[in-house]
């Protein structure tokens, strides 16, 4: 009996709900290294975006990216920033979200999709700069 494989380690657990299937299958198909490469790329793109926004005097970029989330705002009022967000999102090429921290309105750009690469971040920067 000891020479038989433990089939529980070779397949998914099907006796109850398995919420991790969406992660389990890609990990087994592509391996951990593929996920590491993608995450490294997204972290680098967020750092690149942060650096370019921080170098532009029109923007406030008070924090380093939190994983792949970059927070920034126009120097101005919250209402200016709400209009700024609406103008960026009206391009229909990028979608930014927002949050309020310490009573101030910030725009959030999250570099996360496996389809997002440097060309898309450059396009987003162009849209942000032209809207600002």
Description:
- It is a single chain.
- The chain is an alpha+beta fold and 132 residues long.
- 45% of the residues lie in helices and 15% in strands.
- A 4-stranded antiparallel β-sheet has the order 1-2-4-3.
- The chain is elongated and about 70 Å long.
- The mean pLDDT is 90.
Helix content: 40-55%
Order of helices and strands: HHEEHEEH
Number of H/I helices: 4
* Amino- and carboxy-terminal Cα gap: 70 Å
Uncertain residue segments: none
Oligomer: single chain
User: Strand portion, in percent?
Assistant: 15-25%
Radius of gyration: 20 Å
Name the average pLDDT.
90
Strand segment tally: 4
Major sheet characteristics: 4 strands, antiparallel
Sheet with the most strands: spatial strand order: 1-2-4-3
What coarse outline follows from CA principal-axis ratios? Answer: elongated
Structural class: alpha+beta
Notable traits:
132 residues, 4-stranded antiparallel beta sheet, elongated, 4 helices, alpha+beta
Topology:
Layout: H1 21-30, H2 32-54, E1 59-60, E2 69-74, H3 78-90, E3 97-101, E4 104-110, H4 118-131
Antiparallel strand pairs: 1-2, 2-4, 3-4
């Amino acid at each position: 009996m000891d020479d038989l494989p433990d089939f529980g380690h070779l397949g998914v657990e099907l006796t109850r709900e398995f919420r991790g299937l969406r992660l389990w299958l890609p990990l087994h198909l592509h391996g951990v290294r593929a996920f590491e490469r993608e995450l490294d790329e997204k972290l680098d793109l967020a750092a690149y975006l942060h650096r370019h926004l921080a170098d532009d005097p029109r923007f406030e970029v008070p924090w380093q990216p939190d994983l792949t989330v970059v927070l920034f705002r126009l120097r101005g009022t919250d209402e200016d920033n709400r209009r700024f967000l609406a103008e960026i999102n009206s391009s229909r090429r990028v979608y930014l979200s927002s949050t309020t921290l310490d009573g101030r309105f910030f725009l959030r750009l999250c570099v996360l999709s496996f389809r997002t690469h440097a060309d898309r971040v450059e396009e987003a920067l162009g849209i942000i700069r032209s809207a600002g």
